[in-house]
Records
---
Amino acid sequence: MTYALDTNTIIFLMNGNENVIEKRNKAIVGGARFIIPPVVDYEIQRGLLYKPSPKKEKNYFSLRQHYGVGIMTPEMWVKSAHIYFDLRKKGFTVGDDDIFISAFCLLNGYILLTRNTKDFENIADLQWLNWIDD
């Protein structure tokens, strides 16, 4: 099983949240893998540039090196357009970043770890978990 880390989950890991770290460690023991969606990498890096923190930067790049960053393929852009269309048909609007993250997860069969469940709950077939508030 592979978990894709949303921006908020990475921030909790970088800040040393014991609950999230414990769940991650338990998942690793169970054989789980982790990956950072490319859009999440962008969000974290822009945040570190805007508000520099050597400690958080060190923590993030350690996570990044260990888990790796995924790649957005042409198929993911197409899937993203379909997700956007499906949501709009149902009367929902979700930010593009979250749509791109969803397409990345859906096409790769990843489970998204996020606290931002509101933006992801209406995306068909997307599997997500909230390790922060559980």
---
Amino acid sequence: MKKIGTLNQPLSSVISGLGHLDTIVVADAGLPIPAETQRIDLALTKDVPGFIETVRVILEEVQVERAIVSEELLTKSPHVYQQLQELLSEIPIDTIPHIEFKQRTGSACAVVRTGEFTPYANVILVSGVVF
């Protein structure tokens, strides 16, 4: 049995397979996920697990060089954007329109669906390198 890191097998597998510039999306409960994109559904009930706690766990294992969020997050759920900024600290965060964000999820290695019920609580994490 694995004793550290991400215990969810599909999520652990995706994380270990990420290469430079690959993307993984952490999504709220309502983000549409394209049929061709791997869905890792962690949602149990409303807000469980939460968006920020899921991002925090993923960041323990993934080298992220930048992040992308919807422009709408800044105005509709600014408290989540502030928490994300604090969590990502020195990692640049780009903003794009939500319609474009949804289109980009189709090229992600996976979309991790959380139980988050906060509007626009979604992020695309762009994998970096550790050397």
---
Amino acid sequence: MSRIKFRLQIYIIVLMCVIVAGVTGFMILEHLSPIDALYFIIVTIATVGYGDIHPVTPAGKVLAMFIILAGVGCFVGVVANSIEYMIDKRERTQRLAKLNMIVGAFFSDVGIKLLRKFSAMDAGIDGVRSALIVSNTWSEEDFSRATSSLRHYAYRLDSRTINLDELHAFLSGHRKFLLALLENPQLVEHDTFTDLLHAVFHLAEELIAREQRTDLPQSDFDHLSSDINRVYGLLVIEWLKYMQHLKQQYPYLFSLAMRTNPFDANASAIVR
């Protein structure tokens, strides 16, 4: 929850408490009807003050002063924070739009190619392939269902069966690109994508740090397998989120993404 939203909620809660306490107090002290008591509270807090209803007892006047001091301040706080929240929400929407452009660039240059490499080596991919063949008829529920099932999928790629030299060359060639993405301040708005970038960059560093990547001890192959499966799992989930975003916001890009689905053995950019 953002700081502005939390502050706004506090102001609203306090304002509601002041209104309830004020209405109850004026009904008891001034013998006003519920609607008259509420009317007096509202015109007082809104600083309108028509003067047609006013407290006549000393206790009622003390309560009115409390309402003025507490209620007016809370009302101004609610208005000010509501405006600030709307401005912040609009700016955050703009930042997320820019971030989604960054996510798109990542998948175009790195993500889709990695998914093709990893899925081709995934012996269990046929068991979940149906959850990855996104179509134009998918609803938000379909995306949620696919994401939920793939979060529980056991990613078991074995680094011994993967051409680590080829993977090293690919990630090394995109190292500067990955580093530039990590340095982008927009990433603070997208924790899960940041985790993915860190995982990919870490895998690249692990492969770069080894002079040779073939005759490794089993313990090191297991370590690399863990790094690869972490990247693979995060990639799949972020790819589904990206596909959902494209379907909602950019239908023409979504059409191309469907036709080039890295999990579809018959994928082709050519429209048939």
---
Amino acid sequence: MWKMTNNEAYQGLYLHIPFCLRKCDYCDFYSIPVNNSILAGYVRCLVREGELRREAGNLPVATIYLGGGTPNLLSAYDIAHLIDALQKSFTVDPKAEISMEANPVRHDTDYFRIVKDSGINRLSLGVQSFNENELNLLNRIHSSRDALQTVETLHRVGLTNFNIDLIYGIPGQTPSSWEKTLKTAVSCHPAHISMYLLQLNPATPMARKIEQGELSLLGDDNEVAMYYHALDFLRAAGYEHYEISNLARPGCRCRHNLIYWQARPYTGLGAGAVSFIMNRRIMNQANVEQYIRSIQSARLPATELLEEMTAPDLPVDALILGLRLISGINCMDFQERYGIDIMKVYQEQISNCISNGLLKYANNVIALTEKGYFLSNQVLCQFLR
């Protein structure tokens, strides 16, 4: 018997700011070159879309996340205006986590002080590497020095709850350059560190260079070694490994991303933003000009249906997301939420993964093993069958 209990008491709110000074060679997120004449109008439309979404009815908001693109291309005034407007359009928890992604090319003190005063209480810095050659290869617009100056500014204004994003598997990256990047990251005293394997959409400039033989990926063995070395190094430095690619100081886990991994609902505002509401994953049309025209006409933007999940689909989705968490999935909690016994319904898949050393089961909790962290896709695809 399949059932879904409607016990979702809160949601996350995501705002997509799809503007960049320059697109990175590995990036396939929707973004366009910044246009200051469009930027102000886009902010007004985000505010208006929030009002329109409110009229449709929404759950209370536990987290807000400004992603991109490059959200810190917005003026500090625009960010303050946005946060204030969202708190009027939605029921926002007074203790909500309010995050903003930032490119570390900008490090003026007044800007980040106003951003902090506006309600932003968590920053995510897209550092990616502290090696100049690697930054140039990725086509980043900032230098290692820019990143370090931005970190100094955040500490100066008291915005110490910040994340540093890192990438490993960059063509030409060496164990020593990766080690130096990790050491520099830890020396910045971030509350949170994310480390992502470079994975390329075939349409990106870097993927084309690899296809043409101009660049070469490092290969699985080197990528595996970098991943597990980083885990050992960061855990020894006091960071808790709580998700495959994410580590945090105690009490500093990203609450917004936990909403994704726990298959909780979230609403996306802006061109190209994704929502997961009422068992449907939809994306606002990824076109800024069309988005603005729709909102100015008092209409919600056109959307693309990415997934519409039936009752049997929902637990599969939750399994794939939840197994990314190092703590794993409590089978009793899962049964209460979805009405199924994981160990019975997925007995064959789980047994195969346990036999291969990729999953473990103890105290009614199923979780990835240490070996399974890097090979998680081999585990997760089992449940898609």
